[in-house]
Design a protein that fits this description.
0% strand; mainly alpha; Translin_N; cytoplasm; Translin_C
Length: 286
């Protein structure tokens, strides 16, 4: 009797319980499926983002390592190019061939060793991104090459001449890496400072004609660059160098003018054997 009543109670409970409509069951099934798909999609997205950022990290690490190598190569070019300039400054009328021969060999060593290393790092890459890292070394190399060429032949070493010497260093399978026009002009602006020092030194040795040729050469460079600089976009560095260049021109002109006007007074003391100085032949002052 008890079992019969409990059976009736269970049946009544089942009849009283709310029944889920087929549409509701279908919605619940779809919701569960969407959640599973969304979870799988989230896991896939996180995995792809991790892969992407891992790729970015590898690129930045490689880029920074390359930049450090480029900076090191640029410093080596700068240091050894300065040595070439110092070697050329030892020039005099008695040792011209010897000094220029050694300077030429040193310049070839800079190109074949240090500049070749820089080109291997930059060739085939976005080298323009690293211009600030290697530009100082390139400018110093241009300064050394043009300074040597002027003292050797009295002419200007053009951008095409410098780039022609770099072609053998490039990988034939890739586009040859060339010095850009901006770095060449910046290096050419620095050349005038070295020529000013050379002119003052030649005057002190009595080589007035050589100093006058330097004066005319520096004037011409300054005049031509005065036409180019106003049209340059990235010309902040160039404008500051133009001010220094003008000072170099003025110093050379003043030195040559002083020698021309008062040369009879002190040129014999600077290397001329002509007895025209008021000190030559005078009694020693006690």
């Amino acid at each position: 009797m008890l079992s019969c009543s409990s059976a009736f109670q269970r049946v009544a409970f089942m009849l009283m319980a709310p029944k889920l409509k087929p549409q509701r069951l279908h919605q619940l099934a779809e919701t569960g499926t969407e959640q599973l798909v969304k979870k799988a999609r989230t896991m896939t997205t996180e995995s792809s983002m991790k892969d992407a950022f891992s790729t970015y990290a590898d690129y930045l690490n490689n880029f920074n390592e390359k930049r450090e190598r480029v900076v090191k190569a640029s410093r080596d070019i700068t240091m050894n190019s300065k040595k070439v300039i110092f070697q050329v400054h030892r020039l005099s009328k008695d040792n011209k061939d010897e000094v220029l021969e050694k300077a030429g060999k040193d310049l070839e060593a800079v190109r074949d060793q240090h500049f070749a290393r820089l080109m291997r790092e930059l060739q085939g890459t976005d080298f323009w991104k690293l211009r600030r890292a290697y530009s100082p070394g390139v400018q110093e190399y241009v300064e050394a090459a043009t300074f040597y060429k002027f003292c050797l032949s009295g002419t200007l070493c053009t951008l095409d001449d410098i780039n022609a010497t770099l072609v053998p260093l490039s990988d034939p399978s890739l586009e040859p890496l060339q010095i850009n026009i901006l770095d060449y002009i910046l290096g050419l602006a620095d050349l005038t400072g070295e020529l000013m020092r050379m002119a003052i030194g030649r005057i002190s040795d009595g080589e007035i004609e050589f100093a006058q040729r330097i004066c005319q050469f520096v004037r011409q460079i300054h005049r031509e660059l005065m036409l180019v600089v106003p049209k340059m976009d990235d010309s902040y560095d160039m404008k500051s160098k133009m001010e220094v260049m003008l000072q170099s021109v003025i110093k050379i002109e003043n030195a040559c003018f002083s020698v021309h006007v008062r040369g009879s007074e002190y040129i014999p003391l600077l290397g001329d054997d002509a007895p025209t100085s008021y000190l030559l032949g005078a009694a020693d002052v006690e």
